[in-house]
Amino acid sequence: MQRARSISDALSWGIDRIDSRSGTDGQYDDSGVTGSGSLVYILDTGVRISHQDFGGRAEAGWSAGCPTNSESGCGDANSGWVYQGVITEATSQCNGHGTHCASTAGGATYGVAEGTTIITVQVLNCGGSGSTAGIVAGIEWAVADSKDRGLPAVISMSLGGGGANRFDAAINAAFAEGVLSVVAAGNSNADACDYSPASTPLAVTVGSTTNSDAKSGFSNHGTCVDIHAPGSGITAAWVGSDSDTTTISGTSMA
């Protein structure tokens, strides 16, 4: 069934923009494609899965800092890591980046695929830092979990840093298992081919645009960028409460 969502001034212009080849009309039309029956793994800072924008479709997953769920100190925002990647009221001072990205991908109000199931995979701590090994382990966990569930899956990674090709092997292995990785181009106004995972050929690398269809000034660019999407001034869920929102910019939002 085809559905259209009206876009109020409080909501993101971005989802309005992507449902047509040009312009905005104050609505987001999903053309009947809601993502129902699919999985999106958010590899990020953790997700407040109880947020109302997820409508019960966001689930606990895995944390690089608490891989067995028995590590001392996990679940305390001061440690930087939360059990199964789940941000709660007690850890709501954690960075909301992952919650915002999850909302943009699959939120009922702010998201593109409002029917998908969101799985949180914390590969960055509450301060937004992580390791190559932790991110690779998160990719591998997501692939294994998606195989267990037997559903179409996408990995979303709005993260990265300097140095090309650090994640190629893990992303290529995921692709071989039928799991596509969608990654942020980066926010340095530089060549995305100098960053990872943006440089990985088998990932879909996304740059950011403004509401006038121009490249956002911060967005990385170059031949490693596959597509552009709205990333400037994007409103989505945040971590302060189950109704919290914020408006931020970045290729992460695209």
From TrEMBL:
InterPro entries the UniProt entry points to: PCSK9_ProteinaseK-like (IPR034193), Peptidase_S8/S53_dom (IPR000209), Peptidase_S8/S53_dom_sf (IPR036852), Peptidase_S8_Asp-AS (IPR023827), Peptidase_S8_His-AS (IPR022398), Peptidase_S8_subtilisin-like (IPR050131), Peptidase_S8_subtilisin-rel (IPR015500)
Superkingdom field: Eukaryota
Single annotated GO MF: serine-type endopeptidase activity
Domain Peptidase S8/S53: 35-254
Keywords: Hydrolase, Protease, Serine protease
Membrane among keywords: no
SUPFAM superfamilies: Subtilisin-like (SSF52743)
One GO CC annotation: extracellular space
Keyword Hydrolase: yes
Any GO BP: proteolysis
Gene3D superfamilies, alphabetized: Peptidase S8/S53 domain
Active site: 44, 97, 252
Family, as annotated: Belongs to the peptidase S8 family.
Cited PANTHER family: CEREVISIN-RELATED, PEPTIDASE S8
Name listed for the protein in its UniProt record: Peptidase S8/S53 domain-containing protein
